[in-house]
Design brief:
single chain; alpha/beta; two-stranded antiparallel ribbon; 5 helices; 28% helix
């Protein structure tokens, strides 16, 4: 795997970000499709990037006009890379927050703070076994207008979200969801 990836659009377009050999970063074609689909929805949005890795998706969102990004990442190495990439882009604590935790603990912190996000992106490791737990917790940090996108090796259904779109890129699926109304 490469150790650098590039931002594909917006004010930081073509700036390279550091990544780790140990992670599977979201491919440029997948990021471009994601943000082309989101269009102006991302402008001024509050964004949550779960399983953030290098932070590439969150930084792409900021490049394209997002208001702020919270990154959840458990790997110490990846957290260091996110911090380095933020410095490279000149971003401070007014634009980003990094929560070093696994997805459950990280999302629980946000749930306890009663935070809500306009856009949530999750890219768990392929073969991830706790998908319904992820849906359950993400449900608690979004509102009815939010968009949740899951990058995975298959498409998942959930009692918490309705699927609104799916796009396949080889072995990768981007599945777009909206929260089902009401409390579950």
């Amino acid at each position: 795997m490469r150790s650098r990836i590039e931002i594909t659009g917006g004010i930081y377009r073509r700036i390279s970000l550091k990544t780790s050999q140990k992670i599977r970063p979201t491919q440029s074609i997948v990021k471009r499709s994601l943000f082309d689909t989101l269009g102006s929805f991302i402008e001024d949005a509050s964004v949550l990037d779960v399983f953030a890795g290098s932070g590439a998706v969150g930084f792409e969102a900021l490049s394209r006009g997002a208001k702020s990004v919270v990154f959840i990442e458990k790997s110490r190495e990846s957290v260091g890379i996110i911090k380095e990439n933020a410095r490279r882009l000149g971003l401070g604590n007014d634009k980003i927050e990094i929560i070093k935790a696994n997805f459950k603990k990280g999302l629980n912190i946000l749930i306890d703070r009663k935070e809500r996000f306009d856009f949530v992106f999750a890219d768990p490791p392929y073969g991830f076994k706790e998908i319904e737990e992820l849906f359950k917790r993400v449900f608690k940090v979004v509102n009815e207008y939010s968009i949740f996108v899951l990058e995975e090796s298959s498409v998942h259904e959930s009692k918490y979200f309705e699927k609104i779109k799916e796009v396949r890129f080889g072995q990768t699926y981007l599945t777009y969801y909206r929260r089902i109304s009401g409390e579950l």
